[in-house]
Amino acid sequence: MTTHPHHLFLTTSTREPGIVGNTEWLARQAAAALPAGTAQTWLSLARMELPRFVDQRHTTGSYPAPEGDMKTLLDATLAADHIVFVAPVYWFSIPAPLKTYLDHWSAWMRIPGVPFKEQMARKSLQLVTTSGDRAKAQPMVDSVRLCAQFLDMHWGGALWGKGGPPGAVQADAEACQAAATFLIA
What we know:
By secondary structure, the chain is of the alpha/beta class. Helix 1 crosses helix 6. The protein has one domain (7-182): Rossmann fold, CATH 3.40.50.360. It is 37% helix and 17% strand. The longest helix is centred in the C-terminal third of the chain and has 17 residues, at 134-150.
């Protein structure tokens, strides 16, 4: 039996619950092209309790093991082979829930007994995003790529589509076509 890698999709849109925005729609098109049997975990960061990050690197130097939704996120992050940020462009950057999640990576690197940085180096990171035009997405793409680089993760690139009101990306034939192969290794 062939085992397929595990993909963790972290949706970050702050749209009202129940509304599938352009970015998530595009990511789901890409996920649908994965081979049958590929493990997929989808978590909505905007629907989770993400505590404010408190930087203790230069005081206590370590962090306790997370609890609640943060434990769920750490466990899901470590269990995945491929992490896919599903993040629309908000003010030329990543949505606030994704920024909070990334801030907690600093803590996870400093939990005694958790080899976070070492395990992350064996994973890939990809981004699915939408915005009004591609140039406005570039600062966010660069930011996510640098996060992958910092942890020696494989950068799998970004899938961009033309966004706007819900459903707009469905008219972006180039993005829809690219989604069919974006996650295929």
